[in-house]
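Q: I'm a student working through a structural biology exercise. My instructor gave each of us a protein and asked us to get a predicted structure, then write a short paragraph describing it. Mine is Dihydrolipoyl dehydrogenase family protein. I'm not confident about reading structure output yet, so if you can add a plain explanation after the tokens, that would really help. Here is the sequence I was given:
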Amino acid sequence: MTQTQAQTESPESEPLGYDVVVLGAGPVGENVADRTRAAGLSTAIVESELVGGECSYWACMPSKAMLRPVLARADARRLPGLSASVQGPLDAGAVLARRNEYTSQWKDDGQVQWLESVGVDLHRGVGRLTGPRTVTVTAPDGTRRVLTARHAVAVCTGSRALLPGLPGLDEVAPWTSREATSAQAVPGRLIVVGGGVVAAEMATAWQGLGSRVTLLVRGKSLLARMEPFAGELVAEALTEAGADLRTGTSVTSVTRENGVVVVVTDTGERIEADEILFATGRAPRTDDIGLETVGLEPGSWLTVNDSLQVTGQDWLYAVGDVNKRALLTHQGKYQARIAGAAIAARAAGAPVAGRAWGAHAATADHDAVPQVVFTDPEAASVGLSLAEAEEAGHRVRAVDVDLASVAGAGLYGEGYTGRARMVVDLESETLRGVTFVGPGVGELLHSATVAVAAQVPVARLWHAVPSYPTISEVWLRLLEVYRDA
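A: Happy to help. First, here is the predicted structure for Dihydrolipoyl dehydrogenase family protein. I'll explain a few features afterward.
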């Protein structure tokens, strides 16, 4: 069936039967559909917005396109012979134009063509469960089409920004992550509320593009889920770049007066800005997908097993943000590969390998989740922090190295600031977690991810020789500190 046919069916049309129906055509849904289709299962995907989802249009891609010039300029300013050439402001218009190209001008033609090329039927509209293995799609013109799934329905609807319950907030027209990554002009003054990844990255991007950023963090530090030094180093750099960072600060009210945003904090201070971004958490997009028709709570996060089956439903899968295991695009795509393989195996009557690190178990969600925060400096981590490992009852030891002491760091210029930590399990002598903070460390992270996911013994890591002079040599320094202590 073509896309046009899928959009124009009448309410009287007979139900369409598929092996698999996927709700949500973001990267996660696309990967589930790709894996099940590759296994020979007929697959339909339902999307009410743009094919490609949050990551392509309002998150990963536009935010990194905005951040890259900011970080490149910061790197260049550390290099003698180049620094004098990059002291002026960025061309914000050019940066935002390039960002727009990265989002394909918020058009999904290319993504739709890809779905067609792999043989997945696209149904435009709002998809809702209307019973077991049944999805009803309401198209933009109001017509409905019932889709049935012989084997599985996969909920891949993602998450949305969670706004605080402040009175009158709707009238303020606050930014969420969507507006922050799609705005077409630089606000003169921007208040960012939050201390997590979105807050830190968007504060970095808009400060770099010329906005005067005030960052209000309710907690004691930025990036509280990472090692403490990560948030400390990022906070220092943001402050040095000109941002006004205030920790231990809560917003008690926000209004818009004559176009100006006015915030009052818990200390009674009044702060004014042109725009305000709330980066204060995420909520699942499950409030209007018919969960109640199959005995589940609308608006809830969906609990799953390691093959991504929803608890108590052998035909229903929840993949990506909706299961709250790891709200990261790459982790959702990993889950999608696992779920697709599990759906295909069950459809074929084959055994499902549910054991840890098996083909049908998303074990990395528990032990080896990687993440890069694209600030200046970058912060990258995988696995458990020291505090998390100790809280989980592991007998561990943290090994720290100043990244500036590594020969390769000098190639990044003067004043390199960074730190590395590996958390070693003293029983197995494998790594529970690794964190890097510093310019360029994002590209170091996959080596750490392999070491953590594969449970490589420290003794074997001695034989993984880092090239000289690169910042990868930090691995040798970490191992030396562990050995010599």
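A: Here are two points you could use in your paragraph. The first helix runs from residue 3 to 7. Residues 1-10 have pLDDT under 50 and may be disordered. It's a good idea to check both against the output above yourself.
Q: Great, thank you!
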